[in-house]
Design brief:
The structure holds 2 protein chains of 2 kinds.
Chain A lengths: L2 H4 L3 H9 L4 E2 H11 L11 H10 L3 E8 L2 E8 L1 H25 L10
Antiparallel strand pairs in A: 1-3, 2-3
Chain B lengths: L8 H17 L8 H20 L4 H12 L2 H41 L14 H28 L12 H31 L5 H30 L3
The chains are: A alpha+beta, B mainly alpha.
Chain lengths: ~110, ~240
């Protein structure tokens, strides 16, 4: 799936990936691929600026942690991030329902003659 | 930037080249974005491990990790807005915090020199001082408004505002120019007083206020120029 299609939804997707618990940048990218069955496959380097933007907005908090001798920056949702995720889900449900309806072919009887 | 899981030297230098290319495209000094580079480095090592685990030999795994991270220019572009927001916020906070401190030094100077209006009567001031103080108040107001907007536009409230990356550095630059105006006018008024009524001035408070204003003016000039330069690099 191209990055352009995801534009406007990436923040919500990242928040959803972080919902189960804290993850570092590459683990977030792997979760994105796994949960979308490979359909979402952005350049990994573009995930990091998006995570920093979410951090500035107070939706995630980041901290450096060391595990197995490896130092990584780990992200987790803040309470504001959880509320923003709920709001994203609700907006997406309304949007996707509307677009699904619009994209469905009209029954023959309903088409203008 | 060595890591326990770092790949062999040839592959390592490919990672270093990639990170150097990203770093060179980021605004500001390399020290200012060392955390970004460290985070990308740890991500590249994780990606390399994942490709190795998938069966690629180490050198190919490193190249696959670099390919997976994408064009260094695009990665650096993604960080530009954040770096600009950080710079704008630091400048805005500095302007907002130093303004009252420098202002207090000037008020102490006026009181110690018996030049403050008696019984808060504005008319006690000479017409020249009235104009000068009014202009300083306007410049201080511009500084405060620019700084507050810069802080709001880069903080948690930013998620409620439209995403306009050029806005915060512009606001911080306005705060810087306001501070230049306020401090420049303060120093100009001091110059007039020195020329016309030097004997009335209390020397130590005046020297402290002048030194603080000169330092703030130089800092504000540099900060405003940096904010405008970083703003120019944003789309």
């Amino acid at each position: 799936m191209r990055a352009e299609i995801l534009k406007g939804h990436l923040d919500g997707i990242l928040l959803a990936v972080l919902e189960p618990g804290p993850r570092h940048g590459y683990a977030i990218m792997e979760a994105l691929r796994d949960r979308s069955a490979g359909h979402v496959d952005l350049p990994t380097g573009t995930i990091y600026p998006a995570l920093h933007r979410l951090e500035r907005a107070g939706l995630v908090r980041a901290s450096w942690s060391t595990a197995g001798g490896r130092r990584r920056r780990v992200y987790e949702l803040t309470p504001a991030g959880r509320r923003a995720l709920d709001s994203e889900r609700s907006t997406w449900r309304d949007f996707s329902a509307a677009v699904t309806t619009l994209l469905q072919p009209l029954p023959l009887a309903a088409r203008p003659q | 930037m060595n890591s326990p899981a770092a790949p062999a030297s040839g592959a390592q230098s490919a990672v270093e080249r990639y990170l150097t290319e990203v770093s060179a495209r980021l605004p500001g000094s390399p020290r200012a974005h060392s955390d970004i580079v460290a985070e990308l480095h740890s991500g590249l090592v994780d990606a390399t491990d994942a490709h190795c685990a998938a069966g690629l030999p180490p050198a190919k795994a490193v190249q696959a990790a670099i390919d997976e991270f994408g064009d260094p220019a695009r990665v650096a572009d993604g960080f530009r807005a954040g770096i600009a927001a950080g710079l704008a916020r630091r400048c805005a906070v500095a302007m907002l915090v130093t303004g009252p401190l420098v202002g207090a030094l000037w008020i102490i100077t006026a009181v110690a020199s018996h030049m403050a209006p008696q019984h808060h009567e504005w008319a006690d001031l000479s017409p020249g001082l009235q104009v000068g103080v009014s202009l300083i108040a306007v410049a201080a107001g511009v500084t405060a408004c620019g700084a507050l907007f810069g802080i709001v536009a880069t903080g948690r409230l930013s998620r409620w505002l439209p995403a306009l990356p050029r806005r915060a550095p512009a606001a911080a630059a306005v705060a810087g120019f306001g501070a230049i105006g306020a401090d420049g006018l303060g120093l100009a008024l001091l110059g007039v007083q020195l020329a016309t009524a030097a004997g009335r001035l209390s020397p130590w408070p005046a020297a402290a206020a002048a030194a603080a204003s000169i330092a703030r003016l130089m800092f504000a000039r540099r900060a405003a120029r940096r904010c405008l330069a970083i703003r120019a690099g944003l789309t």
